[in-house]
């Protein structure tokens, strides 16, 4: 890509965010409202609030819980989805129940889980996992079910071993759908990371933001929201990089079919 | 098939049989019948199909579209359980895909793993067969070379044309060193010129490897050009109409062979048979299986 092309691409990607920041900046510039502090004040507090101490004491624990809950959801969702998708009878049996569980808004789980899992890390990881597992699970079921019949026959004819069948046929065949589910699950997981810290917690991003709000540290509260947004963007960029690696074949195939 | 013959049959891995062992039946299909039970009506894809394929033979099965050729091949390869009748390979009943059998599917594009390169597609079955690494490398190289895809070894299936994809599927089957190679209308979807090339490729590989080939097609010309024998299937309800020995010379060529008077006679005879079958002709049960 040429420098001009890069420049254009950057302008497209960064254009709207720049405009929004500018609007925010000027709209709040002379603000004396307690609730809408000037953006300049918010940004001034950003460094002292987050980079001195809270990065290790609040941001890191949040991200670790997110990683643990999300990883568990990925593992459980893919494993269960593969089993359910591989046997039509199991699927018919479990589908209504799965749809029911999926329809429950995940935040409602928090008070329930506090009852029997306490208020520690375990509860928060559990909430993230249980809330974000459904899109992965249901998409995996669909993905496994829709693997090409001819490809299945091919694997049988060449007498693929169980392990090879699982990896080379089932998981890779379902991978486009698994990734779709994982993408939906990631945003749910981030929401639940914050929410699980708002009820009963001693550290974390969500906890900090609520604490700032209660102590009327409004610029700090806003800076926390900005940080959450940045973390969301960063995670989605990481996700896309992984997706480009895992689904290179799929994207190539789709481009070739056009 | 008598048990005596099966007892003397070599193990399935042995693909180095010679061509004068033509008389030994390798594959035996007896009274095969397949009915698909639908929600409101049953489809009888095969009524009663009986034939044998000898060791080292190149046999063509020809029949009109929808007569159940794919169904037949899926039963023969153990992918589909027949409603009645039996398939035996080397005297052993086929109930699941047996060792030493490779299939080239009609929907070749869909039979390749899109996440693997051409090389990996050919290599994977060999890994499953636990072929040692060096041997694997040799087999894959040779197979891709034989089908003229050496330069495309690192391409994914979707980066290749239809004809090239079909070649990858053939290379995969050939590298596997099967005892029996089943091919289901492999060239139905490629252009006429590629088709001629691929037909010659199949004959060349068959002659070189001594593999037993069961080639299914709806094209009478193709069947006559390729086969040593052509088994003609009727339209549904499907039975075997005739078993025609193709007495053309072994060295075949797209131009000279197809212009031989003998070629014209054979294809005319088969066309006539198919026409008569359309008007209700069915062979008598005792003539279904020529001695
Ligand atoms: N899985 C199936 N379920 C129901 N009917 C089938 C199935 N597979 C094939 N058939 C029917 O069996 C008949 C023969 O099909 P097929 O074997 O594909 O024919 P051919 O390969 O000769 O074109 C067709 O009428 C087809 O609709
Ligand atoms: Mg067919």
TrEMBL record, chain A:
It comes from the Bacteria. Its main location: membrane. It is a multi-pass membrane protein. GO terms for biological process: transmembrane transport. Keywords: Cell membrane, Membrane, Transmembrane, Transmembrane helix, Transport. The chain crosses the membrane at residues 67-88, 100-119, 125-144, 185-209, 221-239. GO terms for cellular component: plasma membrane. It holds the Pfam family BPD_transp_1. Gene3D superfamilies: MetI-like. It is found in: Cell membrane. Residues 59-239 form the ABC transmembrane type-1 domain. The keyword Nucleus does not apply. Belongs to the binding-protein-dependent transport system permease family. This is ABC-type nitrate/sulfonate/bicarbonate transport system, permease component. It comes from Haloechinothrix alba.
UniProtKB/TrEMBL annotation, chain B:
Residues 1-22 are annotated as: Disordered. GO terms for molecular function: ATP binding; ATP hydrolysis activity. It holds the Pfam family ABC_tran. It comes from the Bacteria. Keywords: ATP-binding, Nucleotide-binding, Transport. Residues 27-268 form the ABC transporter domain. This is NitT/TauT family transport system ATP-binding protein. It comes from Haloechinothrix alba.
